[in-house]
TrEMBL record:
InterPro entries: SsuA/THI5. Signal peptide: none annotated. This is ABC transporter substrate-binding protein. Residues 65-250 form the SsuA/THI5-like domain.
């Protein structure tokens, strides 16, 4: 489904902001947060919590080496985006005034290949071409870290990563046979595997939990805003957090809501795919966080840094003030 078609569906549930404070949300057209954003607007949860969420979808291509949504936030054209916290740390260490204000979830992907592939796990990656959105993508970093930690090799050296530049381009690499496998974002995996002849060899969430050394579900992606928006509109940020918690509760409990989301925002009409995306979202999402959650995220970062190195991560530390579990008054 095109960006225009999905935006039209969102526009249909947009209301007049009137005198409510506005938060400009800019998210990728093929990312899973759009399901949550649509549900907030469809159910009127932003208005219920006393603010207006203005949702606009953008492409997932890179702008100046950054994801489009990240560029929007840093350019001052957005108040709310989501990216993985490694990218947040990387950009913040380079001077970007961005902060993580709430968790989203384990937004990693899966290693996908043809049904009859000879790739059965990480140890089979050497001498194969592996498609990635970019080499600094969290899925590739996790793969490199796990291979180095548990199997004694670096796939960045012994395999050939092929950068696609976007999630759409990544799927095309697989379909065109230009790579042996891809590390695709999780909501797109069911569309590929349910319609075959492909299978998910390994979900990256397994690597997250194994490398973190904890059973707690750790968010990889968080919601971000700018330092200036947080300072000037702390109450709006609080209200968003409340709306988010409410919509998570609804999306976890209500199957009918997912049927509507499938009809409105998904590019396929196969109920099996919609159910797979629904179940994957429920397994991925993180409703809230606390000090222990953030400590676990920092431990995972330290482990990835130790195993993969600063060159792979693009940063050697999580800068102070990156995570804001409580909105400042």
């Amino acid at each position: 489904m095109s960006i225009a078609d999905q935006q039209a569906a969102l526009d249909a549930v947009h209301d007049d902001p009137a005198d409510l404070p506005v938060m400009r949300a800019r998210f990728e057209h093929n990312g899973s947060p759009r399901y949550m954003l649509y549900a907030i607007k469809r159910l009127g949860l932003d208005r219920e919590h006393g603010f207006h969420l203005d949702v606009r979808l953008v492409s997932d291509e890179l702008e100046g080496g950054m994801e489009t949504v990240e560029a929007r936030l840093q350019d001052g054209d957005a108040d709310l985006i989501d990216i993985d916290y490694i990218s947040t740390a990387r950009e913040r260490s380079e001077g970007a005034a961005i902060v993580a204000i709430h968790p989203y979830g384990r937004t990693v992907g899966g290693l996908v290949a043809l049904d009859d592939t000879d790739i059965e796990g990480l140890t089979d990656l050497p001498d194969h071409r592996i498609g990635v959105v970019r080499r600094l993508d969290k899925n590739w970093i996790l793969t490199r870290a796990a291979c180095r930690e548990y199997h004694g090799f670096d796939p960045d050296v012994e395999a050939t990563p092929v950068e696609a530049g976007s999630k759409v381009g990544l799927t095309e690499l697989l379909y065109d046979g230009e790579v042996d496998a891809i590390l695709q974002f999780w909501p797109i995996v069911p569309e590929i595997t349910e319609r075959g002849p492909y299978r998910e060899v390994l979900p990256m969430a397994e690597l997250v939990q194994r490398l973190s050394g904890t059973d707690d579900r750790l968010p990889i992606s968080t919601f971000l805003t700018s330092e200036s928006f947080l300072a000037e509109h702390p109450e709006t940020v609080r209200r968003f957090r409340g709306a988010y918690r409410d919509v998570v509760d609804r999306l976890v409990a209500e199957d009918d809501l997912w049927e509507e989301i499938g009809e409105t925002l998904m590019t396929y009409d196969d109920p099996a795919v919609v159910r797979a995306v629904r179940d994957g979202w429920r397994d991925m999402v993180v409703r809230d966080w606390n000090t222990e959650t953030i400590e676990g995220m920092e431990r995972l970062f330290d482990h990835l840094l130790e195993v993969a190195g600063a060159d792979a991560l693009g940063v050697d530390h999580v800068p102070e003030g990156t995570f804001r579990p409580e909105v400042e008054p």
